[in-house]
């Protein structure tokens, strides 16, 4: 069977794209590995109509709604290889099965490379975050720590005072100049130059000099890259962003390989559930147009 579109990645962006195609009665296969980026978080925020809802519940309900369309097929597995060209693509999954389609959509999401701070990984998405719009309000204007990963962390520290009293931990990642220090001071941001030894408790920072500083929550900037190599293996170009690598697309969400599209966190910045859904909906509509015209 040749599908109209194979969607690699069945999270928010992938399902939003699939919905547009299914409503046009197109045959869609979703291949999903079941590892949403926000699977560590208890609640999703900033998504209109779903504010505060468990992200897993949002995904479950979305898949349930897609399943009502008879032209949907769903494979739980890992896409290992994509090959071919427009109107003649093939995707092979980890179990060796081959699936054919006229178009491809990469909605693989991204993987986060976190700062090498002991205890940070276990708290990621629970008390250590990257997006204040998603998690800042719940900190109730308490003390916030920002663990720098490079010069771009300056912008994160400048924004965070909207949500609480901020301490910027340079952690040897960069040295603000005098003008930047003055700007941070004017915003009420304290600068801590002593390196971070580890995280303790819910969101406590142990410094290398032994001090323990307590916070309502912590923020840091991960470096991202597409969570699957299949788009790059197919020949899709990647591009560098302030957040890391993403799949390069044009305004219609088509990659540098004709007939292959990409959306969501893997193909746009910045990242959030609501932005991923919007990007997926646009990509789905453009995929449909590419099948028609």
Question: Gist?
Answer:
With 293 residues, the chain is an alpha/beta fold. It has helices at 12-23, 55-66, 120-123, 132-135, 153-159, 178-186, 230-234, 273-292, and strands at 2-8, 28-32, 72-76, 79-85, 88-93, 98-106, 110-113, 128-129, 143-147, 165-169, 190-192, 196-200, 204-207, 212-214, 217-220, 223-226, 238-241, 244-247, 260-262.
What would you note in describing this structure?
The chain starts with a strand and ends with a helix. Helix 6 links the parallel strand 10 and strand 11 (190-192). The model has no long low-confidence stretch (mean pLDDT 97). Strands 1, 2, 3, 4, 5, 6 and 19 form a 7-stranded mixed beta sheet that branches. The chain has 2 domains: 3-112 and 222-292, FAD/NAD(P)-binding domain, CATH 3.50.50; 115-220, FAD/NAD(P)-binding domain (3-Layer(bba) Sandwich). The chain is of the alpha/beta class and 293 residues long. Helix 1 packs parallel to helix 8. Helices cover 25% and strands 30% of the residues. This is Thioredoxin reductase. Keywords: Flavoprotein, Oxidoreductase. Residues 3-280 form the FAD/NAD(P)-binding domain. One of its GO terms (molecular function) is oxidoreductase activity.
């Amino acid at each position: 069977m040749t599908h109209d579109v194979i969607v690699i990645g069945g999270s928010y962006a992938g399902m939003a794209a699939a919905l547009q195609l299914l409503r046009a009665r197109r045959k869609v296969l979703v291949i999903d590995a079941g590892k949403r980026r926000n699977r560590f978080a208890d609640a999703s925020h900033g998504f209109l109509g779903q504010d505060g809802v468990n992200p897993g519940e949002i995904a479950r309900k979305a898949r349930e709604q897609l399943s009502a369309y008879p032209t949907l097929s769903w494979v739980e597995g890992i896409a290992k290889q994509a090959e071919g060209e427009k109107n003649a693509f093939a995707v092979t999954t980890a179990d060796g099965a081959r699936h054919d389609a006229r178009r491809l959509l990469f909605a693989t999401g991204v993987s986060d490379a976190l700062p090498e701070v002991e205890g940070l990984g276990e708290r990621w998405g629970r008390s250590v975050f990257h997006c204040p719009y998603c998690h800042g309000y719940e900190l109730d204007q308490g003390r916030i720590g920002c663990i720098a990963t490079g010069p771009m962390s300056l912008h994160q520290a400048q924004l965070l005072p909207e949500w609480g009293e901020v301490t910027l931990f340079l952690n040897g990642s960069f040295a603000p100049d005098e003008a930047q220090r003055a700007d941070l001071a004017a915003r009420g941001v304290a600068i801590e130059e002593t390196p971070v030894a580890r995280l303790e408790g819910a969101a406590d920072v142990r410094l290398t000099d032994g001090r323990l500083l307590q916070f309502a929550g912590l923020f840091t900037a991960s470096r991202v890259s597409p969570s699957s190599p299949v788009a790059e293996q197919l020949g899709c170009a990647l591009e560098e962003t302030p957040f890391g690598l993403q799949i390069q697309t044009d305004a219609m969400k088509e990659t540098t390989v004709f007939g292959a599209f990409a959306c969501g966190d893997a193909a746009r910045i910045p990242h959030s559930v609501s932005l991923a859904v919007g990007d997926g909906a646009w990509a789905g509509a453009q995929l449909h147009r590419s099948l028609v015209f």
